[in-house]
Amino acid sequence: MGPPHVQEVPAVTTTPQAVRRASPRTRRPATPAVPDPSDGLLPRTEPVRLLDPDGTPLPPRDDYPEPPVEALREMYRRMVVGRRFDIQATALTKQGRLAVYPSSRGQEACQVGAVLALRDTDWVFPTYRESMALTARGIDPVEVLTLLRGDWHCGYDPAQRHTAPQCTPLATQCVHAAGLAYGESYQGRDTVALAFIGDGATSEGDFHEGVNFAAVFKAPVVYFVQNNKYAISVPLSRQTAAPSLAYKGVGYGVPSEQVDGNDPVAVLAVLNRAVEHARSGKGPFLVEAHTYRMEPHTNADDATRYRDAEEVEAWRDRDPVARLETYLRARGVLDDAAVAAIADEAEAYAAALRDRMNAQPTVDPLSLFEHVYAEPTPQLVEQREQVRAELAAARDEEGDA
Questions:
Q1: What's the start-to-end Cα distance of the chain, in Å?
Q2: Annotation says 290 is catalytic
Q3: Which residue has the higher pLDDT, 211 or 363?
Q4: d(CA 142, CA 108)
Q5: Which of 12, 210, 303, 345 is the most buried (most CB within 10 A)?
Q6: 155 falls in which pLDDT band (50, 70, 90)?
């Protein structure tokens, strides 16, 4: 008879890790979760929107409460007047009264919303496209257009208006805004600076330097990017591979947001929050508005070379002025009489601008040589005297005639 059957038990290999798991007394405490460094910095994955394109209100949201209806009605008025100003300025360019004019038609919500979110004591740093914003700020339209007329100065007093000269070099205003805002904060004032930026300017070094400085020193700046899809003729896809331009803020520790730039209610709500963030000592804030310029880059541009009519028409259906008008009518704070009165105001504004711009300005050709050097060079003095002699000869010829 053979030996009894003995069932073999597989050997168990005990590792140090298994011992630690098996013995509660030797278990190490759990490693605390590492905070997400991007928490509070990233924008929403979709642009903030409070109105549908047809003007229908969307459900209210706690993060961006709707601005007071009185502010929205004033926003509508300034947008209508601003659009009429823009159309008139474009016509003046065609008539030879302006050397160049960059239209902001289609971007009215951004132009006016930015101004309404600020106090008169806050500073604005515009690009060359912000003529509508400056008139909405209350600056004389002829003074606004002086630079675009070919004068050597900006036309208005920047210190009095708390508005920097319109900036033609891309993104240099980003550094200027950071410096002024930091200086104001250093002196104990609660001034906010808002810098307008185009999508193309976010590719410039000055944009990155300005945002980085503002973040490090917690300068109260709002960087407001109007993404109108084209840097002159270069589409956004050739500017960046980022999900949106608002994501550029996280690299500098700057909270950011993106907003439907053709939704006036959302634009004002987002900018109100951004300005309050900066004013309360929390540092800069970056806002990207998704919008579209309906006209060419300037009167010297042929936009048909890089975009088709179907694209333009699709954006025409998102008109910010019509969008806000529909909403305010539904709220009962705007009717036919009010709309007509605002339209009449806009027409009178354009007529006055047209009459004043048709008056030929008196200029002194010798002023061309002023403010070139603190001490004029011999060559400049020689050129000035040549012009002086030519002017004198022309006067003598007129006298003889």
A1: 150
A2: no
A3: 211
A4: 19
A5: 210
A6: very high
Question: What are the pLDDT digits (tens) for 46-88?
Answer: 999 999 999 999 999 999 999 999 999 999 999 999 999 999 9
Tens-digit pLDDT profile for residues 302-340: 999 999 999 999 999 999 999 999 999 999 999 999 999
Known catalytic residue: 273? no
The answer to whether 293 is a known catalytic residue is yes
pLDDT of residue 26: 56
Q: How many helices (H) and strands (E) does the chain have?
A: 13, 7
Q: What is the pTM of this model?
A: 0.87
Residue of 84, 293, 318, 323 marked active site: 293
Q: b/e per residue, 158-169, with b = 16+ CB within 10 A? A: eeebbbbebbee
Give which of 98, 101, 67 is closest to 324, Cα–Cα.
67
Read off the tokens for 303.
């936009």
Catalytic residue among 297, 318, 327, 349: 297
350-354: long-range contacts at Cβ-Cβ below 8 A with a sequence spacing of 24 or more?
A: 350/84, 350/85, 350/87, 350/88, 353/85, 353/88, 353/89, 353/92, 353/141, 353/142, 354/88, 354/91, 354/92
Residue 42, classed as helix, strand or coil, is coil
